[in-house]
Structure formats: structure tokens, C-alpha cells
Design brief:
Structural class: alpha+beta
Largest sheet: 6 strands, antiparallel
Strand content: 5-15%
CATH class of the domain at 222-315: Alpha Beta
Distance between the termini: 45 Å
Radius of gyration: 21 Å
Number of helices: 17
CATH topology of the domain at 222-315: TATA-Binding Protein
CATH architecture of the domain at 222-315: 2-Layer Sandwich
CATH superfamily of the domain at 222-315: DNA-3-methyladenine glycosylase AlkA, N-terminal domain
Helix content: 40-55%
Order of helices and strands: HEEEHEHHHHHHHHEEHEEHEEHHHHH
Shape: globular
């Protein structure tokens, strides 16, 4: 992580090139400043308490000698730490598996994309019914190589990542819904209530129902079951241009989607989603999307939430995108005018390349000539390029 000489503020480069290691002292400065830009980028492990927190945790800053930083929640839990009940790591913005600080071009893209594809499969339940060897086979790599890549990029093994995702989703549901513990176990991907209880006892030293008793009387962040729907808030990094996103979704020809009064809805089908039902998404207060899901059975919930994150590009890092694309003067005005543009993703995505770097078929020779300098953000560069061209045409008219 570097310091901006003009503002004195900490910059975003917390991941040294080509490694999964964190700059521990740079992370410490971000924690002391409670810098919200780093929320979800790393987690603070406090060895004296056995707890890990978000960089923005409101609790008293721990002593430096008691702190070790971890690149992911899974890495923190693999180190024997448990999630803070105050800042709630499960509510942090999601973060892409690969880092924009990694040198561009070359073989790194293949390894990072392999991890991204593996995460997508894990979110869809690949390790709920299978093992790491089967997952590696689907990705066309060896099991040892997949484990090595996960350690490099995420600081934890695939099985640990899968369990942490289940546990954090379960915590989210416990705190923010009124689902029964059996329903929470099913909705978060645990195979049984017994396994669910055993996991929480091992991690937190208490039954999952005890976490709900600790919920404040002031209510939860999200309401729960409204007319049979599970409602949750998913965090993202601002800014976010909701109007532009909804306009894009409203104009594409997806048969099961529609946008009405600024709210997007998608019909769920058992054949592809594991359950019939419906999901709706709209902007919430603060940097959150409000997601309401009506499904039966609830075990399909993790996959639905993963697809919502992809469709709405909730894991995007707008600061890193702006920092890199701003180097091209042709995009600078568009970036300043619409800083929160996001890429609308597909509900079913089988692409092997990172969505941020996919360039749609185009005959714009000037765009194609400039696109290579936008890596790994070619798709965002094209988005802002089109925005700049449209603004130029409007001004000319």
C-alpha cells in the first residue's frame, strides 16, 4: 500500500505484485484510520482475543503487537480466529479473487481466472456434494495446483473457503432474519442441522441460536421473512450508478428478467437454479443492495445470492478501476461524470475470462486499438468509452 504524496492518504496497493502476502504495516495504517475503502480487502486478526474484524470495526483499536492481517475471512478462520460479533465480517463488501495490483498480461491471468472460476463453482455448491479433486478436474488443473493457487490468492484451502462462506452466510441469516435454525442450516448450505451446530460450536464455542440472542433489541439490518421471502442487504463499494444499471437490465432481452419502478426481478427455475421462485433487487440505504428471495427449497439460496452479486457487479472495486482507466485521457471525463458505472452480468455465466476484461464484439476500430491499455479492465474501459462517445454526440447535437 502506498501513500498519495498530494493528499497524504493511504493508497490501494496493499497486495505486493505476484504474491498473496499483505503489506502488514500498510494494513495497520488503514485500520488505525478506519479507512472504509479497505473494507473487505483484508481482515484484522487479533491474536490476544482470537477474533478477526473488518478494518472499519468500531471497537477499540488493538495493540499492534497483537495484530496479524489476513487476505480473506477464510484465511483468518483457517488461522483459528472467529468472526467479530460487533463489526460482523459477513456484512463486508465482497472482493474479487484476483487483485488489480498484479502485473498485467502474461500467465498471471490464467491462475487468477482459475481461482475466480473455482469460487463461482464453490458458491454454486461444488464442494457441498463433491471434493477438491472433483473441483480441480472441472477446472482442468491438478488438485495440488488448485490448493496452491488458493493459498496464493486467498490464503486458505478450497475446503476452508467453502466452509467460511457457509458460516458467514449462516451468521448473516441468524442476525438479519427470523428463519429457524433448521432453515438457516439449509439456506446456508450445511448438509444437516447436526453439522451446522457442530461447526458453530467448534468456531464460536456456542450454539448458533446463542448468536441470535445477542442481537440488539434495535432490530436487524434487514427484515426477514416478508410474505415468505428472505430479505437481505448485500454490501458493495460506492459509488454505484443504480439508474444506469437498471436501464441496462431493462433493455436487454433476458426472458426471465424485468425492471419495474427501479426494481429488478428474475424468475427462478428449478432446472438451473435448484428451486422455483423469484428474486428481486433494488437499491437500499447506504452502500447496500436489498435482495428479496422467494424460493423453496431454501438450499438454493447461496447460488441465487452469488448470481445476484454477479448480475449487479457487487464485488467491483471502483477506486482501482478509476485509478487505472484514468491514465487514458480519452476516458477521464467520462469517469468523472459517471464514477459508479458497473458491468451488468449474466445470470448464467460460463465464461472463462474475468468479466472485467471481456470485450464484446465491436467494429469500433479506435476502441479496439485502445483496449489493450485498459487491461485488466477492458470491459469497463469500453463501457466508459461508449459513455464518452454518447456524451460527445449529445453535445454536438
Amino acid at each position: 500500500m502506498s501513500e498519495n504524496r498530494e493528499t497524504g492518504r493511504i493508497g490501494p496497493g496493499i497486495f505486493p505484485p505476484m504474491t498473496g502476502m499483505l503489506d502488514q504495516e500498510a494494513c495497520w495504517r488503514a485500520v488505525v484510520a478506519r479507512d472504509a475503502r479497505f473494507d473487505g480487502r483484508f481482515f484484522t486478526g487479533v491474536t490476544s482475543t482470537g477474533i478477526y474484524c473488518r478494518p472499519v470495526c468500531p471497537a477499540r483499536t488493538p495493540n499492534r503487537e497483537n495484530v496479524v492481517f489476513h487476505p480473506t475471512a477464510a484465511a483468518a478462520e483457517a488461522a483459528g480466529l472467529r468472526a467479530c460479533l460487533r463489526c460482523r465480517p459477513e456484512t463486508a463488501p465482497d472482493f474479487a479473487a484476483w487483485r488489480s495490483e498484479t502485473p498485467r498480461g502474461g500467465a498471471w491471468r490464467g491462475t487468477a481466472n482459475t481461482v475466480s472460476r473455482a469460487l463461482a463453482l464453490i458458491e454454486a455448491g461444488a464442494l457441498d456434494a463433491g471434493d477438491t479433486e472433483a473441483l480441480a478436474s472441472r477446472l482442468g488443473v491438478g488438485e495440488r495446483q488448485l490448493r496452491r493457487l488458493f493459498r496464493q490468492h486467498l490464503g486458505a484451502a478450497p475446503i476452508s473457503v467453502a466452509q467460511t462462506r457457509r458460516v458467514l452466510l449462516a451468521k448473516h441469516l441468524i442476525h438479519d432474519t427470523d428463519l429457524t435454525m433448521a432453515q438457516v442450516a439449509m439456506a446456508s448450505g450445511f448438509g444437516s442441522v447436526r453439522r451446522f451446530n457442530e461447526t458453530f460450536l467448534a468456531l464460536y464455542g456456542r450454539a448458533p441460536s446463542d448468536l441470535r440472542r445477542r442481537r440488539t433489541d434495535g432490530g436487524s439490518e434487514a427484515e426477514t421473512v416478508l410474505g415468505g421471502a428472505v430479505t437481505l442487504r448485500l454490501a458493495y463499494r460506492p459509488p454505484y450508478d443504480w439508474a444506469a444499471m437498471m436501464a441496462t437490465l431493462a433493455t436487454r432481452a433476458a426472458p426471465d428478467e424485468r425492471v419495474i419502478d427501479g426494481v429488478w426481478s428474475h424468475r427462478l427455475r428449478a432446472a438451473q437454479d435448484g428451486a422455483d421462485g423469484q428474486v428481486t433487487v433494488g437499491p437500499g440505504d447506504g452502500a447496500h443492495a436489498v435482495v428479496q428471495v422467494r424460493i423453496d427449497p431454501l438450499k438454493a439460496l447461496p447460488g441465487v445470492l452469488a448470481r445476484v452479486r454477479r448480475v449487479f457487479d457487487l464485488a467491483a472495486d471502483p477506486e482501482a478501476i478509476r485509478r487505472d482507466l484514468d491514465q487514458d485521457p480519452a476516458l477521464r471525463t467520462a469517469l468523472a461524470a459517471q464514477p459508479g458505472l458497473r458491468l451488468a452480468g449474466d445470470w448464467i455465466d460460463a465464461g472463462e475470462d474475468a468479466p472485467s476484461d471481456r470485450l464484446a464484439t465491436t467494429t469500433d476500430a479506435i476502441l479496439l486499438a485502445r483496449a489493450e491499455r485498459w487491461r485488466p479492465w477492458r470491459a469497463y474501459g469500453a463501457l466508459y468509452w461508449i459513455s464518452a462517445m454518447e456524451r460527445h454526440d449529445d453535445q454536438a447535437a
